[in-house]
Amino acid sequence: MPQKDPCQKQACEIQKCLQANNYMESKCQSVIQELRKCCAQYPKGRSLVCSGFEKEEEENLTVKSGSK
Fold first, then answer.
1. Mean pLDDT calculated for residue range 27-43
2. Which of 9, 18, 46, 60 could potentially form a cystine with 42 if both were Cys, beta carbons 3.0 to 4.6 Å apart?
């Protein structure tokens, strides 16, 4: 049986918040930040729901290092 994703609860909270606020990300920043905190606690690849943040961070690093 696969292990439960450690950040699944936070991901679900984001979905609930977005649905309740007509998908306006600006109204859900605190919930999104909670997911980021959760993702930071686990090694890369441990949480499937964090893979989007991990990819976003890699792209940001590539852009920053490429602009020097």
1. 95
2. 46
